[in-house]
Amino acid sequence: MSQPAAKEINLLHANLCRAVADPKRILILYALDEQSRNVTALADSLRMPQPTVSRHLRVLRQQALVTTEREGASVTYALADRRIIEALDLMRQVMNDALRQRSDWLLQEGGS
Question: Check: CATH 3.40.50.300 for 6-80?
């Protein structure tokens, strides 16, 4: 894959990175990876106030990370594309490796 252009990077940041910049939105995405749910079920499972979950779902929906399906008066949310979970998992691996390297470096510095 070629190096992305500045415009593409700006779009990536504006759309995707900002959407996953909030830890609560990441938790919502992981919960939806387990199963599709309505706002009340998400709020209960994540122990968050329903208005908070609704606000974060609106952001995720605007960025096309979640989809909705109306069932009578209830709206069920689902992941739009599971690759977002794969990307989050990859970022977690990078973070854990960086923390491990930093810890190893600090131990070596302390032992010098």
Answer: no
The C-alpha R_g of the chain, in whole angstroms, comes to: 18
Q: Which among 48, 66, 69, 44 is positioned nearest to 57, based on CA atoms? A: 66
Q: In the chain, where are the structural domains located? A: 6-80
- No. of helices (H) and no. of strands (E), the chain: 6, 3
Residues 6+ apart with CB under 8 A from 64: 80
What is the tens place of the pLDDT at every residue in 67-103?
A: 999 989 999 999 999 999 999 999 999 999 999 898 8
Chain center to CA of 16: 9
Strand partners, 37: 77
pTM score: 0.84
